[in-house]
Automatic annotation (TrEMBL):
GO terms for biological process: secondary metabolite biosynthetic process. This is Cytochrome P450. Belongs to the cytochrome P450 family. GO terms for molecular function: heme binding; iron ion binding; monooxygenase activity; oxidoreductase activity, acting on paired donors, with incorporation or reduction of molecular oxygen. GO terms for cellular component: membrane. The lineage of its organism: Eukaryota, Viridiplantae, Streptophyta, Embryophyta, Tracheophyta. Keywords: Heme, Iron, Membrane, Metal-binding, Monooxygenase, Oxidoreductase, Signal. SUPFAM superfamilies: Cytochrome P450. Its cofactor is heme. It is found in: Membrane. It comes from Kingdonia uniflora. Heme binds at C423. PANTHER family: CYTOCHROME P450, CYTOCHROME P450 93A3-LIKE.
Length: 486
């Protein structure tokens, strides 16, 4: 198949498109994605190879399924693939692309990205929020302790959502209470994660046959009102001089916007601030909570690993205190557990979609301009060529003596992506995921409910913005520290 046969301009010496399954008119290959697209795309990639061409509705799409191919798209030609395709949710919910995650590549995105990496998500800023996270963890341990005394079953999935919500709201807005807005944010996350026909067949977008855009507009109004109110409150309190250590994300952005010294160097306005806050709410809560949920599930399914993690915690931390974030770097085995869990369960198995900015030839294949690029990080993490025959097995020891990390330097492990569009919050995310897991496994022993055997714990997935467990993770805690007051 040549690009010209898909409506592209006729060119001399055109290279062929990458191979891929034949589609049907209008829908292309959309109907082949199924309920878990990362798994369906893997089946096709086995037949058509690591660079595969499909059509999602009218959108030419390239699916990348090996570490070598991922390196070509995310490193060698990173610049060309650093844009994002336009999506309906950005238009209706994200202030028409005024944030970071959905913005097309260009000076606007570069500027906002710089703001996020230099002002909001720096290692220093992550460190500054440590007391707040410690406080949130203390509250969590207290409530699980009460459940332990009553021998209650705890819904670990709901519990991680709650503590992550608490940490994220406090980091962004200083306040942790969110009763009035929580369900609307959850609805926004759900709608953004839904498959929206308008993203693939543009003229269908205006008809909105699934009613998603209408619902997006409704939640957008409620969220906008909430964010306006938060910004107003912060402006009213601006006279209360805060030290840099005490500033939440809204304070930081407002001070940059009003700074006389730096003359609003990022060109911020209220819609920018609201769009960035929404990106952080959406990008920050579900992803980290889901990563913790999978890490917990794997440890519960593998008592050998649980025992080894707890032995490490006993020897590094001791039984007379809770874990402190300063301990994390010494918890070598737990860090391997986190990596191994992210290898098998990248919460964004297809990362976020990229878009090509120009026509390009890669490995002898023509990659048309404005193609959607999907990186299947899920299949890359399970490739037996790189991870050996036991690639499907949860085996943290595979990282012993290697320097493979999750930060985008190794194209065989890409839970946060790599290159220009990779996650800007890796340090924050790893800190949060590791401390919550460490604390819960240090303070408590856990048993599956109703005598369920570890091997019977199901690991079914549910597709969405983050791919989480289909069924909540339930377990009964027993307090194991030798202190009574936290
Ligand atoms: C375990 C937790 C997390 C995981 C696994 C994760 C993963 C990812 C992935 C896969 C991408 C897309 C990369 C690509 O397109 O190639 C991404 C982008 C992004 N993430 Fe994260 N993330 C996590 C936590 C967070 C947190 C805590 C925040 C903010 C507070 C955040 C904010 C963002 C933003 C704003 C982007 C878009 C960047 C851009 O388009 O330039 N993420 N993340």
């Amino acid at each position: 198949r040549l690009w010209s046969s898909f409506g592209g301009k006729k060119k001399k010496n055109v290279y062929p498109l990458p191979p891929g399954p034949m589609g049907v008119p209008i829908l292309g290959n959309l109907h082949m994605l199924g309920s878990l697209p990362h798994r369906s795309l893997h089946k096709f990639a086995k037949k058509y190879g690591p660079i595969m061409f499909i059509r999602l509705g009218l959108v030419p799409t390239v699916v990348v399924s090996s570490p070598e191919a991922a390196e070509l798209f995310l490193k060698t030609h990173d610049y060309n693939f650093a844009s994002r395709p336009p999506v309906q949710s950005a238009k209706y919910l994200h202030y028409g692309n005024k944030g970071l995650a959905f913005s097309q590549y260009g000076p606007y995105w570069r500027n906002i990205r710089k703001l996020c990496t230099l002002e909001l998500l720096t290692n220093l800023k992550v460190e500054m929020f440590k007391p707040m996270r410690t406080d949130a963890m203390g509250g969590l341990v207290e409530s699980v302790k009460i459940a332990a005394e009553a021998r209650d079953v705890v819904d670990l999935s709901a519990m991680t959502q709650t503590v992550l919500g608490d940490m994220t709201y406090r980091m962004l807005f200083r306040r942790g209470d969110r009763v009035e807005i929580e369900s609307t944010i959850q609805e926004a996350l759900r709608l953004t994660g839904l498959f929206n026909l308008g993203d693939y067949i543009p003229y269908v977008g205006t008809l909105d046959p699934q009613g998603i855009n209408r619902r997006l507009k409704n939640v957008s109004k409620v969220i906008d009102k909430y964010l306006e109110q938060i910004i107003d409150e912060h402006m009213r309190d601006a006279h209360e001089k805060r030290s840099r250590n005490d500033m939440d994300f809204v304070d930081v952005m407002l001070s940059l916007m009003h700074s006389k010294d730096t003359e609003n160097q990022y060109g911020l306005d209220r819609p920018n601030i609201k769009a960035i806050l929404l990106d952080m709410l959406e990008g920050g809560m579900d992803t980290s909570a889901t990563a913790i949920e999978w890490g917990f599930s794997e440890v519960m399914k593998h008592p050998r690993v649980l025992k080894r993690v707890q032995e490490e915690l006993r020897s590094v931390v001791g039984m007379d205190r809770m874990v402190d974030e300063a301990d994390i770097s010494k918890l070598e085995y737990l860090n391997m557990v986190v990596k191994e869990s992210m290898r098998l369960h990248p919460v964004g198995p297809l990362l976020a979609p990229h878009e090509s900015m120009e026509d390009l030839t890669i490995n002898g294949y023509h990659i048309p301009k404005k193609s959607r690029i999907i990186i299947n990080a899920w299949v890359i993490g399970r490739d037996p060529r790189v991870w050996s025959e036991n690639a499907e097995e949860f085996y943290p020891e595979r990282f012993i003596g290697t320097n493979i990390d999750v930060r985008g330097h190794d194209f065989k492990l890409l839970p946060f992506g790599s290159g220009r569009r990779s996650c800007p919050a890796i340090q924050l995310a790893l800190t949060v995921v590791t401390i919550v897991l460490a604390q819960m496994l240090h303070c408590f022993d856990w048993e599956l409910p109703n005598g369920m055997l570890p091997e019977d714990l199901d690991m079914n997935e549910k597709f969405g913005l983050a791919v989480s467990r289909a069924n909540p993770l339930l377990a009964t805690p027993t307090f194991r520290l030798s202190i009574h007051r936290m």
